[in-house]
């Protein structure tokens, strides 16, 4: 898999895509993450990529030409399953979308910035708009990093124990059950006896019950979405 990220602040990804699971996945050649500086695709001598909006609204708008240049250059090298724009008014990113995208071969993520991008980019170049929540960030870089992490960890081989990813919260629209480790008792706080029993079938039944109970209590909306 290859993830191309287009940003006006590529330095923001230092430390985000070159450590932990993302680094290990790249070291194993399971994924390649390439961050592109949008200013490299500007045609003016000052490498500006934004301008004032028509109509007099406050703020600056990312220009269409450098974005088109960047996307066109990448598409000339390979085919892409999706060209994604990080936007607060896009569809909300969730585990289902992460699962879907983990099977893709190549994606482009365009990070929004300033007041937004020239709307013609969204009309003619973008195939999907994604939000990570109902709030506004300074730019789409953090959203792109969140998406990359959620997607890459699902690629077979990225995590040492693949069952770990499959048992995460939001898989099957359930929150994960509680987890515990040694010591079995600390300050009088004990690990549930069932987890120490060695009876795997009963342990699995307990975990499912806990997952359902926690989801009903903390995120009932997840269960309603399955109806």
From TrEMBL:
<feature type="binding site">
    <location>
        <position position="112"/>
    </location>
    <ligand>
        <name>S-adenosyl-L-methionine</name>
    </ligand>
</feature>
<dbReference type="InterPro" id="IPR029028">
    <property type="entry name" value="Alpha/beta_knot_MTases"/>
</dbReference>
<keyword id="KW-0963">Cytoplasm</keyword>
<protein>
    <recommendedName>
        <fullName>tRNA (guanine-N(1)-)-methyltransferase</fullName>
        <ecNumber>2.1.1.228</ecNumber>
    </recommendedName>
</protein>
<feature type="binding site">
    <location>
        <begin position="132"/>
        <end position="137"/>
    </location>
    <ligand>
        <name>S-adenosyl-L-methionine</name>
    </ligand>
</feature>
<dbReference type="InterPro" id="IPR023148">
    <property type="entry name" value="tRNA_m1G_MeTrfase_C_sf"/>
</dbReference>
<comment type="function">
    <text>Specifically methylates guanosine-37 in various tRNAs.</text>
</comment>
<dbReference type="GO" id="GO:0032259">
    <property type="term" value="P:methylation"/>
</dbReference>
<feature type="domain" description="tRNA methyltransferase TRMD/TRM10-type">
    <location>
        <begin position="1"/>
        <end position="224"/>
    </location>
</feature>
<keyword id="KW-0819">tRNA processing</keyword>
<dbReference type="InterPro" id="IPR016009">
    <property type="entry name" value="tRNA_MeTrfase_TRMD/TRM10"/>
</dbReference>
<dbReference type="GO" id="GO:0052906">
    <property type="term" value="F:tRNA (guanine(37)-N1)-methyltransferase activity"/>
</dbReference>
<keyword id="KW-0808">Transferase</keyword>
<keyword id="KW-0949">S-adenosyl-L-methionine</keyword>
<dbReference type="Pfam" id="PF01746">
    <property type="entry name" value="tRNA_m1G_MT"/>
</dbReference>
<dbReference type="InterPro" id="IPR029026">
    <property type="entry name" value="tRNA_m1G_MTases_N"/>
</dbReference>
<comment type="similarity">
    <text>Belongs to the RNA methyltransferase TrmD family.</text>
</comment>
<dbReference type="InterPro" id="IPR002649">
    <property type="entry name" value="tRNA_m1G_MeTrfase_TrmD"/>
</dbReference>
<keyword id="KW-0489">Methyltransferase</keyword>
<comment type="subunit">
    <text>Homodimer.</text>
</comment>
């Amino acid at each position: 898999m290859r993830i191309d990220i287009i940003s006006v602040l590529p330095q923001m990804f230092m430390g985000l895509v070159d450590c932990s699971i993302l680094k290990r996945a790249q070291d194993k050649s399971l994924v390649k993450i390439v961050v592109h500086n949008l200013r490299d695709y500007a045609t003016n001598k000052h490498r500006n990529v934004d301008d004032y909006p028509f109509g007099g609204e406050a703020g600056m708008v990312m220009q269409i030409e450098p974005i088109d240049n960047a996307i066109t250059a990448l598409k000339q090298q390979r085919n892409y399953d999706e060209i994604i724009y990080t936007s607060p008014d896009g569809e909300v990113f969730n585990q289902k979308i992460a699962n879907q995208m983990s099977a893709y071969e190549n994606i482009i993520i365009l990070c929004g910035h300033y007041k937004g991008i020239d709307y013609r980019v969204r009309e003619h170049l973008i195939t999907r708009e994604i939000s990570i929540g109902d709030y506004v960030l300074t730019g789409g870089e953090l959203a792109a990093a969140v998406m990359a992490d959620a997607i890459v960890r699902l690629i077979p081989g990225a995590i040492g124990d693949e069952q770990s990813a499959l048992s995460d919260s939001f898989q099957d629209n359930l929150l994960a059950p509680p987890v515990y480790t040694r010591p079995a008792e600390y300050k009088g706080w004990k690990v549930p006896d069932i987890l120490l029993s060695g009876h795997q079938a009963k342990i699995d039944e307990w975990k499912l019950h806990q997952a359902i109970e926690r989801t009903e209590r903390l995120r009932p909306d997840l269960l309603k979405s399955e109806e």
